[in-house]
Specification:
Strand order of the largest sheet: 1-2-30-29-28
Keywords: Nucleus, Repeat, WD repeat
Family: Belongs to the WD repeat SWD2 family.
Number of helices: 1
GO molecular function: chromatin binding
WD repeats: 142-183
CATH class: Mainly Beta
Distance between the termini: 7 Å
Subcellular location: Nucleus
CATH superfamily: YVTN repeat-like/Quinoprotein amine dehydrogenase
Structural class: mainly beta
């Protein structure tokens, strides 16, 4: 098997880093050079970023989340040492490190302006913070949650966003004001996601075994649809319908909902009727060591998006203790249980606990304690 030579980041070097060979994905009004389906099997771990600012004797931090800005030019991580790291995608280099030592940081997300971000606190209080990255100054605090925030979901067309919390509330926010605009009281609303049109949002509640879909214009009313995960779990154990959830995401074509699980497989659900389209079975039931959202255990950290869709909505990528698993959602699941085996296993010795696919370019980022950029090998 042909492989792409590994490149190691050297942040202390004064020499310019050569641009990575990145090709665009298919998307609305975006020039394309490669379809995702043409390159998905050829991805290889290409550039490893190693933190050079970790003091001797200090443990290597964990990457808690990965996010890309809208143009796909910047990649951002939030890390367990209370830092935010920002990387230039096309040049394959580390850009800056931002500190949040007083409040901690997790779930960092770009707004639709690449120079500003929101993130959840891990200490002091449970406020959400709005930060300008060019000078590391706070623009606004969003206060109201009384326990830890578990999910932040930015509206696809505006800077409105949703937050979920262990205080059993879902709050809707307008980024222009610090006061929440709406509050829903739900049982364990640990995860939230927007559909690509921004007219529907979903909330995942593991304690009730449901995914609730709301009309954004009438969220005060009852959900427009309720997905019964116990009914739609396929061959998974009943326990998987009520715990261990890690990810909630709509595909960009609006047809599917991905409900990630730390157990033996992920759930691919029909976004319209809530039925199980496929049970994405992990290889040998292998999963990452991270905790599911809302779980707590001394010495371990939460998962944050350990699986995701490709931008065309066709593929689902998932981390594991080693390698990167890829399912083709257009493939026919096997049997009445609708089991779908991985179409590709992309080899990598490091654990991929957090996974993200660039929205504009054919590149993938994965991490556990170090960030890895994946690119298609042109010789594969």
């Amino acid at each position: 098997m042909a492989s792409t030579p590994m490149d190691l980041d050297e942040p202390a070097s004064s020499t310019a880093t050569p641009s990575l060979n990145i090709t665009r994905t298919l998307g609305a009004n975006v020039p394309s050079t490669s379809k995702v389906s043409d390159v998905i099997s050829a991805f290889r771990p290409t550039k490893l970023f190693q933190r050079d600012d970790i003091k001797e004797g200090k443990p290597q931090p964990y990457v808690l989340s990965i996010d890309f800005d809208d143009p796909g030019d910047l990649c951002m991580t939030s890390e367990s040492d209370e830092t935010i790291q920002i990387y230039n995608v096309k040049e394959g280099r580390h850009d800056k490190s931002l500190l949040s030592k007083k409040y901690g940081v997790k779930l960092a997300k770009f707004t639709h302006t690449s120079s500003s971000i929101i993130y959840a606190s891990t200490k002091q209080n449970d406020a959400i913070r709005y930060l300008a990255t060019h000078d590391n100054s706070f623009i606004r605090y969003f206060e109201g949650h009384e326990k830890s925030v578990t999910s932040l979901a930015l509206h696809p067309g505006s800077d409105n966003f949703i937050s979920c919390s262990l205080d059993n509330t879902v709050r809707l926010w307008n980024i222009g004001t610090k006061q929440w605009t709406a509050k829903l009281l739900l049982n364990t609303p640990h995860l939230a996601a927007w559909d690509p049109s921004g007219t529907v949002f979903a909330v995942a509640s593991p304690a009730s075994g449901t995914v609730l879909l709301y009309d954004y214009r009438n969220y005060q009313k009852a959900p427009i649809s309720v997905v019964d995960v116990l009914k739609a779990r396929g061959p998974a154990e009943p326990d998987a319908a009520f715990r261990g959830w890690t990810t909630l995401e709509f595909s960009n074509d609006g047809k599917h909902i991905l409900l990630g699980s730390k157990q033996g497989g992920h759930f691919l659900l029909d976004a319209f009727d809530g039925s199980l389209k496929a049970y994405l079975k992990k290889r040998n039931g292998e999963t990452t060591r991270r905790l599911a959202v809302g779980e707590s255990e001394s010495g371990n950290v939460e998962s944050s998006a350990d699986c995701c869709f490709s931008p065309d909505g066709r593929y689902v990528l998932s981390g594991a203790k080693k390698d990167l698993l890829v399912w083709d959602t257009m493939a026919t699941p096997a049997g009445a249980n609708k089991v779908l085996e991985p179409a590709y296993v992309l080899e990598e010795k490091r654990e991929a606990a957090v996974v993200a696919y660039n929205p504009r370019y054919n590149m993938i980022a994965t991490a556990d304690q170090e960030l890895m950029f994946w690119l298609p090998d042109p010789h594969a």
